[in-house]
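Two entries, shown back to back:
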Amino acid sequence: MIAALRGVVTHYDPDTATAWVDVQGVVYEVRIPAFVGEWVGSVEGVPDTTLYTYYHVSERQPAPLLIGFQYLQEREFFRKFIEVPDVGPTKAVRALTRPVSEIARWIEAGDVKALRQLPGIGQRLSQTIVAQLSGKLTQEALLRGEATPTAAVAPTEDLRADAVDALVALQYSRRDAERSVERALEARPGMATLEDLLRAVLEGEAPSEGRA
């Protein structure tokens, strides 16, 4: 399996959603989901660019398919997404027009209506996606945009507000979310990132607590 490519993006065509990546003279054609397209276009010609990739080949699709992502978390989400019945790699590439964190929050919240905004994802498939993946995308849903875990966040007040909003998106009541965030901050006052704070909330609660 080809897990990643490090080289130069020599060409990106948004119309065909493909990029060419030159790795020491070998040029790979990589399919690019729409939400990754802006970033790929911005790094065209930049040396030592890394694309995390998902390699797919099957009896029904014998031609190898490489799909590229900016972050490892995006690739891991994609691997889970295509495990849903009737969602293969090709359909998933077309469907992922929104950031992974946003789609993961829709799934965790059971928001079938929001999922139907994605190309090729109808009512029945939206319901199947929620049924198959709900409860499995907590870490993806807690990503701040597509930031890496070490990304800096705003000062404490903004951090608290962002954490409350993220928990509400995960179907906490706002009152319970505020209480949970306060307890986590009291227990670990030195936390500086949204991901750390939300992980502390989830680790510090019993399964029966927190959600409305």
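entry 2 starts here
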Amino acid sequence: MNTLKLTWLYKPFPELTPFELYAILRLRSEVFVVEQNCVFLDADNKDQIAHHLMGYNGDDLVAYTRLLDKDTAYKLMSIGRVVTSPNYRGAGIGKELMEESIQLCYQLFGKDYIKIGAQLYLQKFYESLGFKQSSEMYLEDDIEHIEMIKQFDR
């Protein structure tokens, strides 16, 4: 269980400091490019219109998601670039990160469906948060993915 007490901070892109932006890009690169051995262009021109949720342990960025309104990545609002620091895994922060992200989506964009593009091996994790598979498996950057949707529980 999570023994860390993370500090959560979210900002739209124009409010990010250069240090926050650097920490975000570094963490995303560390996991999505280096750890997953996947060469892809992470900077996809959606960051500028996103809200960025950051979880800090002291001065260390250890958890992050990018929140997008409807009609940006999908017709539905979405949570993407879900990442936790390899140095902090196993402490339950992934679940806390997603719970914070879901609530922030509702706060920012309204209480409606949320869509994600999930790596297939994380399907059960996302199902535990209320997401259901909504597509067949597809390859994105040679990694198996599925789309998943979470209904708003009224």
